[in-house]
Design brief:
By secondary structure, this protein is of the alpha+beta class. The chain contains 6 helices and 11 strands.
Amino acid sequence: VSYEYDIYYRFKDYLKGKISLAQYAEDINRQEAIYPDNYVKLRFLENHDRPRAAFLVPDALQRRNWLAFLYFQKGMTLIYNGQEASCESRPSLFDKDPIDWQAGEDISPQLRALRTLRSHPLMAEGSYSVQDAGNGILRAMYARGERRLMGLFSTRGTSAPVRVPFRDGRYCDLVSRQTVQVEGGLLSVKGEPIVIDSETEGAP
């Protein structure tokens, strides 16, 4: 297991507007090409020597999307002490520093909901790729045979229709547990992250 420092600086470059979302997606896809098939990256938005996610991404809606993408990514997910309370200041490495639950929004419910995604079989068995879907939206995909697990993550919190390789129909969003509709090959993103499984077509 290794930290994803090989592309973390590109994540920060995107947040600063130095590179495009397509360039960031290319960097993630490059990992699939240069590492062994069974590589494991430790995915993080923050850790002991990097700024807090709440500091890097102050907008709560954008941060929800990045958090959902964090859980969706291939590898292991790191949640750093205090991230669940949206803390902005880093704790000391050498002194007791209890979580300040008044620092910001308690995102524990979202963390619990996203945790269920990690048990999806395609995350262990499918090939992984990421694309810039336009309008600041990342489209990430696991594929095995005809089955697809797709995530749409609005890095700017924007709303836009996204073209998706799914049949028209109704699907269960595995993040919100609500029904979403693919119509004319398009799925409407309304600022929040969406994850759908091609086998949940017709979900109520």
